[in-house]
Write a structure and sequence with these properties.
eight-stranded mixed β-sheet, 17 strands, 20 helices, disordered N terminus, globular
């Protein structure tokens, strides 16, 4: 496929989240980056996951968005759900590529890694990957505790090793990837996130916004602390609640708004009830952009208590909103927040230190105003999305050149290792997952039985690996083999077809009970 040689390449972009699906900062990043790239003349085709009541095909700010229908995927195993989502992304990409050509693939994190690698291999395209976070980082450098974490790490490693260009959103992440994936720093481009300052600073009447938020969510009068982010351990929301308990004893009028969802939500709500703070700590879940902006503008202090933070785009959003920031001195936040200039920084994991910094901002009006002004000016001048897009275009061009030179030197099409092959340590295909996949595909009786080759094609796995796993499952009585006569030209032959036994079906369904 002939590469485009001008400065605005045609980009096939993969991201599992895109507004209105907002799980974390990745969605915001892809939204603004893709639109800024379009404004610079780039042709962007984004493949992403669907969202209720949103069109599967749309043009968003010039970006062509194609959403795959994940509602057809009924999986409670997250890796299997990701596997199926990637299969749909691969099929959709192949359909698009029948009529179009692209110059570069851009993948955002491991969740779309299988699709990006498959299309790279099929069409011999250069691949740029943005590493937004890693499983090692989320685990804060400790050893992995389960196969789930190991599988994600293997996918990250495979994606990083087979990318022609790598982007990290902070120098911290560059060093992290360099040390944990044995990648040279000069292979990684550091391109910080941006912020759309105007969209966070357009509310003309702050008092009106405060009144509307207070009435809508029944927030009592008084100062407001704000947290916005995923409710996961590495973001430290439990530490913020402990800090708030300290501050509440000193100032009973203080309130805390928590925006976001995550697996810790119920345990955090239970903790708030045990502490008797349910009238002062308010969980709002996901909110739309207009509401989020109003909440930012209503807050007196924005708090980021992260234990691990690759970048921390919410810090820029708070600064753009004119809200003073108190954050952990960790990861990418250390590069954004200059202590006592654009915010206050504290050592991570200490509720007392966090409470002390918040108390300082609330208690010293001159400091509060100083941090507001500096933070806003800093976000406005240094973190513009058009600058991010310009640097990303440069990464694309370098990757395209690198790929072209590599192709001329080798004279061969590059071979990309297939995700899930034995060489990749069975990334997805454990025995249990094959049972679940066969159940999902309806291979449960003689009439729907398939050969190993047919199953390998359906699952986009190597036939040899399929046979190995089927052999193990058959020996346990979970899979039945059926010998079926067949005819090739004028010769008779036999096909060996497989389907789940009753025991296999019961085992595959065991997680649903």
């Amino acid at each position: 496929m002939e590469a485009n040689t001008d400065r605005t390449p045609r980009i096939l972009m993969f991201s599992w989240e895109f507004p209105p699906r907002i799980v974390g900062g990745l969605s915001t990043h892809v939204y603004h980056l893709s639109r800024s790239l379009y404004r610079k003349g780039a042709d962007i085709q984004l493949i992403t996951c669907d969202f209720p009541n949103v069109s599967l095909q749309e043009i968003n700010g010039g970006v062509r968005v194609s959403r795959v229908n994940s509602t057809s995927i009924q999986e409670r195993d997250f890796l299997l759900w990701i596997y199926h989502m990637n299969s749909l992304m691969i099929d959709r990409s192949i359909e698009i590529l029948k009529n179009e050509t692209f110059d570069v693939i851009h993948a955002h994190d491991w969740m779309v890694g299988r699709a990006a690698l498959e299309i790279k291999g099929l069409y011999n395209l250069p691949l740029v990957t943005t590493i937004h976070a890693t499983e090692i980082g989320r685990n804060r450098g400790s050893s992995f505790h389960n196969d789930f974490q190991k599988a994600i790490h293997r996918m990250e490693d495979l994606l990083i090793r087979n990318s022609d260009g790598l982007i990290c959103c902070s120098s911290y992440m560059q060093k992290h990837v360099e040390s944990n994936f044995n990648i040279s720093a000069n292979q990684i481009d550091v391109i910080h996130n941006g912020v759309d300052t105007l969209s966070f600073n357009h509310t003309p009447d702050i008092r009106k916004a405060m009144s509307e938020i207070s009435q809508r969510y029944r927030i009592p009068n008084g100062k407001i602390l704000l947290y916005a982010g995923r409710l996961v351990l590495e973001k430290g929301p439990d530490i913020l609640i402990d800090a708030f308990e300290v501050l509440h004893h000193e100032n009973p009028e203080l309130s805390l708004i928590i925006v976001g969802e995550g697996p810790l939500k119920q345990s955090l709500m239970n903790k708030v009830i045990r502490l008797g703070l349910q009238n002062r700590i308010h969980f709002m879940g996901f909110v739309d952009q207009e509401t989020l902006v109003a909440i930012y503008r209503s807050a007196d202090v924005f708090v980021i208590p992260s234990l691990y933070e690759p970048f921390g785009i919410v810090a820029l959003e708070a600064m753009a909103s004119g809200v003073p920031v108190v954050s952990s001195d960790v990861g990418g936040l250390s590069e954004i927040v200059e202590d006592a200039v654009t915010g206050l920084k504290v050592s991570p994991g200490d509720p007392q230190l966090l409470a002390s910094a918040i108390r300082q901002v609330l208690g010293v009006p001159s400091l509060c105003e100083f941090l507001k002004i500096n933070g806003y000016e800093y976000a406005l001048k240094r973190y513009d999305w058009d600058l991010v897009a310009e640097k990303t275009l440069q990464t694309y061009m370098r990757s395209m050149t690198k790929k072209r030179i590599s192709g001329m030197a080798s004279g061969e099409k590059e071979q990309i290792p297939s995700v899930g092959t034995a060489a990749d340590e069975d990334f997805f295909l454990t025995d249990y997952r094959l049972l679940r996949l066969l159940l999902t595909l309806g291979i449960t009786k003689e009439e729907s039985s398939k050969t190993a080759k047919q199953i390998s094609v359906l699952l986009r796995q190597s036939e040899s690996l399929i046979k190995i796993v089927i052999g193990r499952l058959a020996s346990l009585g979970y899979i039945s083999a059926l010998i079926v006569p067949s005819r090739i030209n004028d010769d008779f032959a036999i096909d060996i077809r497989y389907h789940l036994t009753e025991s296999g079906i019961v085992s595959a369904c065991s997680d649903f009970s």
